[in-house]
Amino acid sequence: MTDKLPPQLLQLFAPRPALRYLPPCDHAPEDRRTPAISGVAQYVQAAKEYDDGYVPSESWLQKKDRQKMERDEAAQYRVTEGFKNEFKPHEDPNVVGDPLKTLFVSRLSYNTEVKDLEREFGRYGPIERIRLVEDTTTPTPKKKHRGYAFIVFERDSDMKAAYKDADGIRIKDRRILVDVERGRTVKEWRPRRYGGGLGGRHYTKAAPPRPSGYGAPLVPEASAAVVAALAAAASEEASAVEEEEAEAEAVASGADSVEVTEVATVQRRY
């Protein structure tokens, strides 16, 4: 078949020249030897006797379970043994003042300072001492205090007035809770961390104003003025609509009278 092709095409089927021989870079093929391979049974006993002190690390699931177990054990200890050994308000050097003149204030904002409490509760009477309870157990606490305080008044009547009137007021955008001091006045009283307290925790931060429509949310201080302006505009629009309807009725009544006059005139003619 190829003998019928022209010489130009026969050159395409010509074999390539042989490759140039190069000696091997390491060993000649006839001189190469692979290492002898044996079994591993002779090393099994040595592997059993090997000990480097390796301790396997716990996974994130094991760590999570361990931390949860530690928290549960700590909470159980506080409820049983910790209450008997740790909670001693009569021996606490930070607790100063007459317990019958002391007011307990809780659910405070963590940005609340002593001057804020003095400004709010000073109107009920002279204050002897204000104590914001700080976190002394955490090495580097993220919050300034624990969110509750004790206010000692000079007169018990002022404390009673604050106890009746100050419950539920807002300080730093949070609704507070006031109560009498129960640690030194109520027998076998347990605070929350020892399994006691008076109730559950509640979210007391005020909700931000929600926007209405497609515009920007109303500012609380300017909401009354905006509402009054909207009401005035609505009343003006209603009065304008009523005037237009009255004018339309007057025009319609005038057209009816003209038609009646024209009909009477035509009847007289005929």
UniProtKB/TrEMBL annotation:
One biological process term in Gene Ontology: mRNA splicing, via spliceosome
Domain RRM: from-to ranges: 101-183
One Gene Ontology term, aspect cellular component: precatalytic spliceosome
Name the UniProt record assigns to this protein: RRM domain-containing protein
GO molecular function, one term: U1 snRNA binding
Entry-linked InterPro entries: Nucleotide-bd_a/b_plait_sf (IPR012677), RBD_domain_sf (IPR035979), RRM_dom (IPR000504), snRNP70_RRM (IPR034143), U1_U11-U12_snRNP_70-35kDa (IPR051183), U1snRNP70_N (IPR022023)
Keywords from the named record: Nucleus, Ribonucleoprotein, RNA-binding
Origin: domain of life: Eukaryota
Acidic residues: bias regions: 239-248
SUPFAM superfamilies: RNA-binding domain, RBD (SSF54928)
Subcellular location: Nucleus
Entry keyword RNA-binding: yes
Region entry Disordered, spans: 238-257
Primary location class: nucleus
Alphabetized Pfam families for the sequence: RRM_1 (PF00076), U1snRNP70_N (PF12220)
